[in-house]
Design a protein that fits this description.
CATH architecture of the largest domain: 3-Layer(aba) Sandwich
Helix content: 40-55%
Distance between the termini: 34 Å
Structural class: alpha/beta
Strand content: 5-15%
Shape: globular
Bound molecules: pyridoxal-5'-phosphate
Radius of gyration: 21 Å
Number of strands: 12
Number of domains: 2
CATH topology of the largest domain: Aspartate Aminotransferase, domain 2
Length: 377
């Protein structure tokens, strides 16, 4: 299909900053093409530790509490496989990143979604988390800023969730891959909250903040006994993260702060433009405070999220992701990534406006015709 504007893919449209690519080219020239230690290059682990301490005041021992992984994807898989026994429950906010429910199931666990809603800005209510805790609960999985909603969670609510974890002796798995892409307020690192560090598995990486999705490099920070468990799986399943990618990550942490700031500034500009535009054309969208996603309601169109995404693609050639890809509670929404140029976003909004207008006119001339089962509930 030609002339499609894709707002579908969850990755930066920036190429990795030149200084990072150049460091990787130089690493190849010098022949750094071997395995590294299973936990990853010590220099990188030391830099990760210093980075987290400088940003959030949480320190991790590079020798015992950090492992470099092949993306947060691997870090999440290792964490779930290390922590869960068959039947253990993991609580998470839904709509959520597509890998959470399958990842928990692969590890023999049972996912327990707690539904969040657009009307509340997709806030995870600590009371609802409390109500979901049972004798089988092993962990609470958090992701702020979140995919697909772009929601962040305030420090007080996060502390209340940490307090629950302490009270019921649960692990906290915190996927903070979008931490640097926070546009309103400051990011709260879960491990920095009172009582959290000893029970938190912190997942983060280079894919989003440094535009390095294809390099496959990330890290897990956790207390030493947990890292020991993760390493047992990692050393046999993966051996180590790619050597050149680890050297590129060293360059990212050492010298790419100005690149990160520039990209974040640009995402914020696009966010304001695009979210304002969605609301103006009648697709109500709570202001996403982080990541690079808008998750507007499409309820006003009378279509299910699958129908909306499919028809928008065929009628107007704009690709978005149906909200149901992020769990059943994503019905009535679509995810639009604004990691695209302002020109593309402008044209996408023009096409979406035309599409929504036609749907609404159709609804007026044939009331009830477009109302599907999915949107009635
Ligand atoms: C919330 C979240 N976690 C993890 C990942 C995967 O990250 P990585 O590229 O580090 O494997 C993504 C990718 O979209 C994501 O949105």
């Amino acid at each position: 299909m030609q002339d499609v504007i894709s707002l579908g893919v969850g990755e930066p449209d920036f190429v990795t900053p030149w200084r990072i690519r150049e460091a990787a080219i130089y690493a190849i020239e010098r022949g750094y093409t071997t395995y590294t230690s299973n936990a990853g290059l010590l220099e990188l682990r030391e830099l990760v530790s210093a980075h987290l301490e400088a940003l959030y005041g949480v320190a991790y021992d590079p020798n015992e509490e950090i492992v470099i992984t092949v993306g947060v994807s691997e870090g999440l898989d290792l964490t779930l496989r290390t922590l869960l026994n068959p039947g253990d429950e993991v609580i998470y906010a839904e709509p959520c990143y597509v890998s959470y429910a399958p990842g928990i199931a692969f590890a023999g666990g049972v996912g327990v979604p707690v539904i969040t809603r657009g009307e509340d800005g997709f806030r995870l209510d600590p009371e609802a988390v409390h109500a979901a805790i049972t004798d089988r609960t092993k962990a609470i999985l958090l992701c702020y800023p979140g995919n697909p909603t772009g929601a962040t969670q305030n420090r007080e609510d996060l502390q209340r969730i940490v307090d629950l974890a302490c009270r019921y002796d649960l692990f906290l798995i915190s996927d903070e891959i979008y931490d640097r892409l926070t546009y309103r307020g400051e990011h709260t690192c879960v491990a920095s909250l009172n009582g959290a560090r000893e029970r938190t598995i912190l997942l983060n990486g280079f894919s989003k903040s440094y535009a390095m999705t294809g390099w496959r490099v990330a890290y897990v920070c956790a207390p030493a006994p947990v890292i020991e468990g993760l390493l047992k799986i990692h050393q046999y399943a993966m051996l180590c993260a790619p050597h050149v990618a680890q050297l590129a990550a060293i360059e990212a942490l050492r010298n790419a702060e100005s690149d990160v700031k520039e990209m974040v500034h640009e995402y914020d500009r696009r966010r304001r433009f695009f979210v304002g535009g969605l609301n103006a054309i009648g697709l109500t969208c709570p202001d996403p405070a982080g990541a690079f996603y808008a998750f507007p309601s499409i309820a006003a169109t009378g279509l299910s999220s699958e129908e909306f995404a499919e028809r928008l693609l065929y009628d107007e050639r704009v690709a978005v992701v149906p909200g149901t890809a992020f769990g059943p509670s994503g019905e009535g929404h679509v995810r639009c990534s604004y990691a695209a140029s302002v020109d593309q976003l402008e044209e996408a909004l023009r096409r979406m406006e035309r599409f929504v207008k036609r749907l609404k006119e159709g609804m007026r001339s044939a009331p009830g015709k477009h109302t599907t089962e999915a949107t009635r509930v």
